[in-house]
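Quiz preparation item.
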């Protein structure tokens, strides 16, 4: 997986609400990182959680398997496969697996939150890499639209 800005090509992930996520055993895997967003697959083990956290980016989470409890800014909400939860930047959040099977979801961060090459087998591995500065979004994913246009990364004609 590249650590540089994305190519102007389609990225296709079939069966995101069925086969692919239900087969994941990794806690976190970045699937794609763009100039303004990032798609990440997560698997929360039985009895596990993602950790009580606050991001400086917006986050939308779609649950594909399992059941859990979301806590957003002190408010609890049960979640299940097919649900979508949005967490605005700067908002406390926590997701806990309350079911007998893994809680699997994909999340879209806007802008990116993780290194494009990130794969964490466990929450503990992810926490350690984040604390040590090894898992951070690339600088190119935090540039403005004007900066990206000037650098030739975005062309409103759509031709490259």
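Solution:
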């Amino acid at each position: 997986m590249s650590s540089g800005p994305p190519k102007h090509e389609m990225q296709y992930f079939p069966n995101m609400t069925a086969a692919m996520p239900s087969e994941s055993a990794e806690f976190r895997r970045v699937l794609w990182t763009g100039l303004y967003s990032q798609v990440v697959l997560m698997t929360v083990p039985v009895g596990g959680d993602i950790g009580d956290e606050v991001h400086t980016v917006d986050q939308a989470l779609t649950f594909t398997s399992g059941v859990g409890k979301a806590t957003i800014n002190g408010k609890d909400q049960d979640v299940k496969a097919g649900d979508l939860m949005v967490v605005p930047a700067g908002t406390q959040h926590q997701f806990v697996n309350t079911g007998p099977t893994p809680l699997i979801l994909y999340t879209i961060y806007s802008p990116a939150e993780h290194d494009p090459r990130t794969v964490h087998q466990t929450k503990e591995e992810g926490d350690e890499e984040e604390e040590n500065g090894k898992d951070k979004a690339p600088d190119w994913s935090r540039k403005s639209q004007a900066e990206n246009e000037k650098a030739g990364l975005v062309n409103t004609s759509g031709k490259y």
